[in-house]
């Protein structure tokens, strides 16, 4: 496997980062998870735009243009002959001293891994996930905006551990006002009385690239879609629930907190969404 690291493709064993890198010491860095389908990198430009917004939010100055990062991403896929898989693009603050100060890190690092990912066992894509709500709240935007895709994922990791302790593969995280924010690595959508509804990003969700695609898909399949605050009650009493994410793709949820969603089976709207999604990922992309 070849890894892109600071301008070069190197063997996996040589793809090493300093222990003084603040990405490691403090989670000071940003990343993107991107998929490639049949040689098309899905919505690459949107991912790189989000990366730039994350960098801006952290005052992390990236010395590379969007085009240079896109070319590096394509080069990494080609070098690994990756036609279908998952790309992890990471930018760290770089090497500094043992203090927090990011201004003492003169040069950010970038690395790109082109590999595979399987977030949930395959059977759940047809039979659906049974999930729970956990006690760990999604971080308050005034502390660290959840829209920033930073290397600090401890909030989500704590929620994921709680889900596992409860015997579930995924968890809903509420925001500090008790409204549904998102899952540990996915956005959430409900279908209720013929409408698709999802929490606004301002409620503590990442602005998912897959989430964006669902808005286009809803238009295509003729189902109204909107953002709204939602509580656990709204999810319990929804007709359908599904999750979206680059890693997860689109996956149905059939139970939340012991309550069956709808008739306890993946629904008709989800089936249409999945069909459109599968078609779009093969056509909406940057060819490598
Ligand atoms: N929420 C969180 C917390 C995430 O980490 C992700 C990405 N895995 C998502 C939502 C989904 O975003 P995207 O569709 O851009 O992958």
TrEMBL record:
This is Branched-chain-amino-acid aminotransferase. Pathway: Amino-acid biosynthesis; L-valine biosynthesis; L-valine from pyruvate: step 4/4; Amino-acid biosynthesis; L-leucine biosynthesis; L-leucine from 3-methyl-2-oxobutanoate: step 4/4; Amino-acid biosynthesis; L-isoleucine biosynthesis; L-isoleucine from 2-oxobutanoate: step 4/4. InterPro entries: Aminotrans_IV (IPR001544), Aminotrans_IV_CS (IPR018300), Aminotransferase-like (IPR036038), B_amino_transI (IPR005785), BCAT-like_C (IPR043132), BCAT-like_N (IPR043131), Class-IV_PLP-Dep_Aminotrnsfr (IPR050571). It catalyses: L-leucine + 2-oxoglutarate = 4-methyl-2-oxopentanoate + L-glutamate; L-isoleucine + 2-oxoglutarate = (S)-3-methyl-2-oxopentanoate + L-glutamate; L-valine + 2-oxoglutarate = 3-methyl-2-oxobutanoate + L-glutamate. GO terms for molecular function: L-isoleucine-2-oxoglutarate transaminase activity; L-leucine-2-oxoglutarate transaminase activity; L-valine-2-oxoglutarate transaminase activity. Coiled coil: none annotated. Pfam families: Aminotran_4. One of its GO terms (biological process) is isoleucine biosynthetic process. Acts on leucine, isoleucine and valine.
């Amino acid at each position: 496997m070849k890894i892109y690291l600071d301008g070069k493709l190197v063997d996996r064993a040589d793809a090493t980062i300093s222990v003084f890198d603040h990405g490691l010491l403090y989670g000071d860095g940003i990343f993107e998870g991107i998929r490639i389908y049949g040689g098309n990198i899905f919505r690459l430009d949107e991912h790189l735009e989000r990366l730039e917004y994350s960098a801006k939010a952290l005052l992390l100055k990236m010395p590379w243009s969007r085009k240079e990062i896109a070319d590096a991403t394509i080069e990494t896929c080609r070098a690994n002959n990756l036609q279908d898989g998952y790309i992890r693009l990471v930018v760290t603050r770089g090497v500094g001293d043992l203090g927090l100060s990011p201004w003492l890190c003169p040069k950010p690092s970038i690395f790109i891994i082109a590999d595979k990912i399987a977030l949930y066992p395959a059977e759940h894509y047809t039979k659906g996930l049974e999930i729970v709500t956990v006690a760990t709240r999604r971080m308050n935007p005034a502390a660290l905006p959840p829209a920033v895709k930073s290397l600090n994922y401890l909030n989500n990791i704590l929620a994921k551990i709680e889900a596992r302790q409860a015997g579930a593969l995924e968890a809903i995280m509420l925001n500090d006002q008790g409204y549904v924010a998102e899952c540990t690595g996915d956005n959430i959508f409900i279908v209720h009385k013929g409408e698709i509804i999802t929490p606004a990003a301002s409620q503590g969700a990442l602005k998912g690239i897959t989430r964006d695609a669902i808005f286009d898909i809803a238009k295509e399949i003729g189902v109204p879609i909107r953002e709204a605050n939602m509580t656990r009650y709204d999810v319990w009493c929804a007709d359908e629930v599904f999750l979206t994410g680059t890693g997860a793709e689109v996956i149905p949820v059939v139970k939340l907190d012991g309550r069956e969603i709808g008739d306890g089976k993946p629904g008709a709207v989800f089936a249409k969404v999945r069909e459109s999604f599968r078609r779009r990922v093969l056509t909406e992309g940057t060819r490598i």
